[in-house]
Amino acid sequence: MKPKSGKYITFLPDERIVPVGQKDESVLDVALRNGVNINHTCGGNGTCGTCLLWVEEGLEELHPRSEMEAEMAIDRTFRKEERLACQIHPIHGLKVRIPSGS
Question: What's the pLDDT tens digit per position in 38-50?
Fold first, then answer.
């Protein structure tokens, strides 16, 4: 169920709709604060790639990959919709899929 007001993002496959928090938070921060489990072995520093998500809605609104995320994307041949939860900031209406096993 979507909140009646405010900004939110959706985590699939569980359809968890959670409010967007502070401006400087990452999607990983928002997920953890709301009890959404996403692997993050490096503690959200963008060095392990375990917080990989698939962006299903809102990709065009996200900022470009950071240098660190871009290097990992090249090394691991990420598709354009594959982003690291610790490296993207939540935007209203963003819908992301957590891969199974995460």
Answer: 999 988 888 899 9
